[in-house]
Amino acid sequence: MSPDANQSRDRENSLAFTELPDLRLEYSGSARLERIEPDDYCLEHHCKILVSDPRDDGAELDVGELDVIHAQFGLAVNNGVSWIDVLDAHSEGASEYCSLLENNSTWKDDVGDVGNLDLLILERCIVRPEFRGHGLGLLAAKCAIDAFGESCGVVAVIPFPLEFAGFEDPNWVPPAGVSAENKKQAFSAAKTKLEMYWSRLGLTPYNERIWILLTAHVSPSAAEIFRGLQAPVATQVPPPRRTRHRHGSGWKRDTQR
Ligand SMILES: CC(C)(COP(=O)(O)OP(=O)(O)OC[C@H]1O[C@@H](n2cnc3c(N)ncnc32)[C@H](O)[C@@H]1OP(=O)(O)O)[C@@H](O)C(=O)NCCC(=O)NCCS
Q1: Are 69 and 94 in contact (CB under 8 A)?
Q2: Ligand 1 atom closest to Cα of 132?
């Protein structure tokens, strides 16, 4: 390793936050004036996660990325478009959340009294390895919920360790320490870790795959999330609220992402 690379590694290793990180999201996305396709009711926000460097006044670190989908069900329903169609038309990833809306019912039927109709999906969250361990992904998600969740009654995420995406594909490259023999156990352990991680944001299991936060309920503030990061994490997953599945579930489905 070059001296420069060593220096940058040491610098990143020394990163520590004694107070709530000064984090912001820089995002891009687009919206159509005329909603022609059901997919047009899904607004995507691609966010860069930026954090002020606590060691260097004025410097900002580009620590990762967060993609969210704001499904504008309220507007879609007003225009006679079905909620399921909105998700189905968007992407395979978004269509997985259809199990939140069985039989084209309403949030009220399926989830409870949520107030607002829209759905905010935390679609993809990545913090660069050198910046992990500070809960910056959680704080970025909190920032996104505050920024884009105003009209959303429900925030949802599928806790899924990305290194296991498509693991049944023969070309899948297992992460370090994982083999064909232990991949199911390794996946399950990683998934549980991520579930516990998202629970710090106030998300709870809706079914075996999807975790949700009802925005009408009290959820931790950014400062509380940050303080919680200093405390030990729970290790047991609470039981899901319900177990219905529109598309089926289980290991096979888990690996198709
Ligand atoms: C998920 C992520 C954004 C969180 O970043 P962060 O806020 O810095 O938090 P951490 O990296 O400390 O992760 C929290 C815990 O989850 C674990 N974890 C996070 N992603 C994991 C993954 N893909 N596989 C296995 N474990 C994972 C971490 O090891 C850590 O466990 P620990 O508390 O025992 O140390 C970051 O770990 C990441 O980019 N992971 C890879 C991408 C990914 O799988 N994203 C899926 C999000 S659903």
Answers
A1: yes
A2: 8
